[in-house]
Structure formats: structure tokens, C-alpha cells
Amino acid sequence: MTQAVKDRQNDIDAMVRVDHAGEFGATRIYAGQLAVMGDRVPGSNEIAAMAAQEAEHRARFDALLIERGVRPTILQPFWDVAGFALGAATALIGPEAAMACTAAVETEIDKHYSDQLDALGDDDAELSQIIHKFRDEEREHHQTAIESGAERAPAYALLSGAIRLGCKAAIAVSKRI
Question: 64: closest CA among 14, 123, 112, 1?
């Protein structure tokens, strides 16, 4: 195996690792939101539906880690706590803030998945198909969040910007660590 092939495989493994971390984090964010909101708050049904879809995404990446022998990020225990805390905190602010969290996260995930698809090209058809499907579903989550009042959240621009910055940082470190 040439060094170029090894490097390309390492890049693809990093994609699987970071995508797994992201889907894991998403399930934890929704778990935090639902723990606070339950099913008694406007938007909780939408959040529960998105949470179920994220659980499917996570299960697929759980399987890919095993199938491909890719190690998960060692930061998973941190993402577990941080994701839940972010979800709970935004839900405590209110339903619109919970939706603002979703809109912000999905904005970054859409860009992240699109960049991955560009980088993959024709090198891994299975992974490309998965990412493409999940990206489309994440775009639907973003649209649901906007339609559910994300932009009416208190200090929306500040909240969204902080969450987006956190997502970018999480993506950067989870690729390698």
C-alpha cells in the first residue's frame, strides 16, 4: 500500500470518526432538550422526531466504526456531557432557543457534510451515499427549526453564533483525537 493510499484511508477514517462523534453529540443534545421539555412544550414533538432520526444516524455510524475498524474519538465522554448540557441549557431558555440550537448545529453540519462529499469524490460510494442521505435529513431538521421559531429565540444571533463556533471546534478536534 502506497503512502498516498494510506493517507487517503486515514482521511476517510477521520470522516467516519468525526461523523460518528457528531451524530452521537446530536443524540445527546436532543436528550438534554427532551429531559427539560418533556412532551408538554410546543416543539417537543418535532424535537422527538428529529431525535429519533439522529438515533438512526448514530446507529449507522456505530456500525461503520465496527465494520471499518475505525476508533471513535476519545472525546466521546466529553461530547456526552457537553451535548446533554447544551440541549438542556437551550431548552431551559425556551422552545425557540432549543430550535435555535438545532438551526445552528444543522447549519454547520450541512456545510461539514457538503465539504466531505466534495472531498470524497468517487473514492467511497457507500460513505458518500450515507453522508448525502444524512445531509438531506439534517437540512430538513434545519428547516423544521426555522419554521418552529428558532429565529425568535432570545439573543438569536449571539446564541446561534456561539453554538456554530462550538460545532466548528468539535468537528476540528474530533477528526483526529
Answer: 14
pLDDT digits (tens, 9 = 90+) for 157-171: 999 999 999 999 999
* pTM for this prediction: 0.91
Tell me what percent of the residues of the chain surpass a pLDDT of 70.
99
The dihedral region occupied by 70, where left means phi > 0, alpha psi between -120 and 50, and beta the remainder, is beta
Residue 54 CB: number of other CB atoms within 10 A?
24
Please answer whether residues 28 and 79 qualify as being in contact, where contact means their C-beta atoms are separated by less than 8 angstroms.
yes
Q: What is the torsional sign of CA 11, 13, 18, 23?
A: positive
Tell me which residue has cell 477521520.
14
Query: Distance between CA 64 and CA 31 in Å, rounded?
Result: 23
Q: Which set of grid coordinates corresponds to residue 54? A: 439522529
Q: Measuring CA to CA, which residue among 156, 104, 91, 119 is closest to residue 12?
A: 119
| Residue 14, C-beta contacts closer than 8 angstroms, at least 6 positions apart | 175, 176
pLDDT on residue 24: 95
| AA letter at 1 | M
Residues 119-123, mean pLDDT to the nearest whole number: 87
